[in-house]
Amino acid sequence: VSPSGDAGARVLSLGCGDIRSLLYSLFVQRGNKPTTIVLNDFNACVLARNVLFLFLVHRLPDLTPFRNKTSGIVDVHNNKEAAALLSLYREGIADLWGLWYSLDLTQGQISRLHASLDELIDLSHTLDKWRSSPLGFISFYDDSTLRLVRHSWVAWRSRDISYSGLVKARSMRQEVLHDRIPKNDQARVMSIMLLQSRLLDQSGVHTDSIRHSGTLLLLSMASPSRPILYNDREYWYYYAIGNSSPVDLFSNVSPSGDAGARVLSLGCGDIRSLLYSLFVQRGNKPTTIVLNDFNACVLARNVLFLFLVHRLPDLTPFRNKTSGIVDVHNNKEAAALLSLYREGIADLWGLWYSLDLTQGQISRLHASLDELIDLSHTLDKWRSSPLGFISFYDDSTLRLVRHSWVAWRSRDISYSGLVKARSMRQEVLHDRIPKNDQARVMSIMLLQSRLLDQSGVDMKAEPDLKEYYQNGSTLSAVCSLLGHAPPPRDEDVRLNPLLFEGSCPRYTLHYGSLPHEGYSHHHTFTAANHKE
Q: DSSP class of residue 67?
């Protein structure tokens, strides 16, 4: 970020979570021009914690006059004032750490917390009162935001903080952990989390960390983006597959004149919500959708999938106007196009989810990647191509996306590569799900996928899900769709490179990725639509 004149830097932090990045950034940039940081989060309680923590940081005593100009250390030698302030400072830091992370607090910490909450509640009666207070440097967007944050402070102030309340909270916390981690495997999981938290040295667990393992466990469980360690390198989880039902991006958007709706999708992940939204809103005015994601490989997959959807044959002229079903009776052209359409949908499904692909799917993928790589040599060439309806923000974005396509095109997709990928995938799953507990976890996944009825597992769905869980494969489902039986032999299948993050040598697809989770269950489709 480049400072803009005297105003300094201006930063918008979307889905900010806690203020660790804010405090770290201010520490790194200390001494620079004033900064405006907008903190946004879906959860008002998160913002309420952040304002409380900023208030506590703001109240820390200023030790600058007592710091050694060279070392920065506070000199308390024969200086009672410096010693007293340093003691208050340390107490403030200890309070901040405890309130941020610990389930239990001392009576002194609770008393100081209540005093701080009382002051914040008093200052937040109205937006005008807040703005004129010493905390006016923290601005709220509107009265509604302030009221939501104040509501959290009031709730915390009135909560039962007795020892019996603490005992009950500890019990609830253990229930949450035991739901995720079987009791006989908790020691191993804690060691893994210590390793991921970078608290292990070469000789083993850091002893100081073990003393506080309860706090560590809670923190690690709260962070799904911990890195995978592989050959002394860290790889972050690859969120290529959505694991929640799609949403209609236009549900609360009013079209603006002839331009239609304009939507910004931040941290978009895959394009399930985009496709679902276009399906729900089909026939409406033109739409502009901006897809944003931290990971260029996710965007590269999205563009590839949009390309494949764009290439599907148009069956509109052959659809029955009432039922929507494609009429192939005595119509060879319609039958041929429907066959190509089904093959295209099967390719899309396989590339999206399956670790293994048929040789035909790989050949068509390579042809598509070759075409995309050729069209993306320059931004001008891309814009003038048939895919110009997909715009890139700048040359840099296009280059990053193209780099993923090139990496996938050159990846080893042989059967031996597939076997190695299956092994790595099992390592990831076994790190998270102990072997003796995998049957129960698969049942949970079936239930989460809404494939269980009151009588038990849907027998039609179980074999497909079991195959996916064990091998990461959806080939049986694809062959069933196309009417091919049986599926190809193992030696005849190839590795799907799109489930690897570019040229990353490690399988990093998130262990919770499940195809059935990415589908909407809010619409009831007619039999005709289901067949379509």
A: B
Question: How many residues appear in the chain?
Answer: 532
Contacts of 7 (CB under 8 A, 6+ apart): 33, 34, 36
Q: What 3-state class would DSSP assign to 447?
A: helix
Element (H, E) at 170: helix 163-180
The closest of 340, 494, 318, 352 to 422, measured between CA atoms, is: 494
SS (H, E, C) 302-359: HHHHHHHHHCCCCCHHHECCCCCCECCCCCHHHHHHHHHHHHHHHHHHHHHHCCEEEH
Q: Compute the CA torsion angle 274, 275, 277, 279 (nearest 10 deg).
A: 160
Residue 422, both tokens: 């299956």
CA separation for the pair 198, 237 (Å, rounded): 17
Q: What is the pLDDT of residue 184?
A: 53
Residue 56: its pLDDT value, please?
94
Which has more confidence, 174 or 270?
270
Helix (H, G, I), strand (E, B) or coil at 141: coil
Cβ proximity of 499 and 365 under 8 Å: no
* % the chain with pLDDT above 90: 31
Q: How far is CA 236 from CA 171, 180, 294, 299, 461, in A?
A: 32, 21, 12, 16, 31
- Sequence-separated (6 or more) residues with CB below 8 Å from residue 83: 76
Point out the least confidently predicted range of 17-31, 93-107, 330-344, 509-523.
509-523
Question: What's the pLDDT tens digit per position in 270-324?
Answer: 999 888 888 887 666 667 889 988 889 999 999 999 999 999 999 888 888 888 8
Say if residues 328 and 338 touch (Cβ distance below 8 Å).
yes
Q: What is the CA radius of gyration of the chain?
A: 28
DSSP three-state, residue 130: helix
Count of CA atoms in the C-beta half-sphere (13 A) of 55: 25
Q: Do residues 236 and 230 touch, judged by C-beta distance below 8 A?
A: no
Q: Average pLDDT in the 32-57 region?
A: 87
Crossing angle for the helix pair 80-101 and 213-221, nearest 10 degrees? 50
Identity of residue 200: L
Say whether 121 sits in a helix, a strand or coil.
helix
**Could you read off the pLDDT of 346-391 as tens digits, one per residue?**
899 999 999 999 899 999 999 999 999 999 999 999 999 999 999 9
Written as six digits, the tokens of 322 are 């009432």
Burial code (b: 16+ CB inside 10 Å, e: under 16) for 498-511 equals: bbbbbebebbbbbb
CA angle 311, 373, 293 (to 5 degrees): 80
Of 117-126, 220-229, 369-378, 493-502, least confident by mean pLDDT is 220-229
Q: What is the DSSP string of 222-234?
A: T-TTPPEEETTEE
pLDDT of residue 40 exceeding 70: yes
